Amino acid sequence: MSQPEITVLYFAAASTATGLTEQSVILPASQYPLSSLSSFLVSLHPDVGLDKILQSSQWSVNAEMVDDVEEVTLKGGEEVAIICPVSGG
C-alpha cells in the first residue's frame, strides 16, 4: 500500500526559510491531523526558523482556508498551503 502524500506550498517567509515554493511530503500516517503537520515540517527543515513562521501563519487545504486545524485530517492527495502574514512596514 502506498503511503499518503501531500503537496505543501510555501509562500513568503516560509518559502524563504525552506528555500522551496513546493514540496511533496509523505505523511507519517494515513489519517494525519493538520494540527500535527507544523511540527512535522519543522522536523524536515530544522534550524531555519520555520517553527516561528508557522506559529503566525494560516493554512489552506485544497485552496480553502482552514479556520480550525484541529478539525482537519489529511488523508493524502491534498494540496496544503502555508499562508504567512504579510509584514507591514
TrEMBL record:
Gene Ontology biological process: Mo-molybdopterin cofactor biosynthetic process
Localization terms from the record: Cytoplasm
Keywords: Cytoplasm, Molybdenum cofactor biosynthesis, Nucleotide-binding, Phosphoprotein
Main localization of the protein described in the UniProt heading: cytoplasm
InterPro entries assigned: Beta-grasp_dom_sf, MOCS2A, MOCS2A_euk, Mopterin_synth/thiamin_S_b, ThiS/MoaD-like
Family statement: Belongs to the MoaD family. MOCS2A subfamily.
Protein name: Molybdopterin synthase sulfur carrier subunit
Organism: Suillus discolor
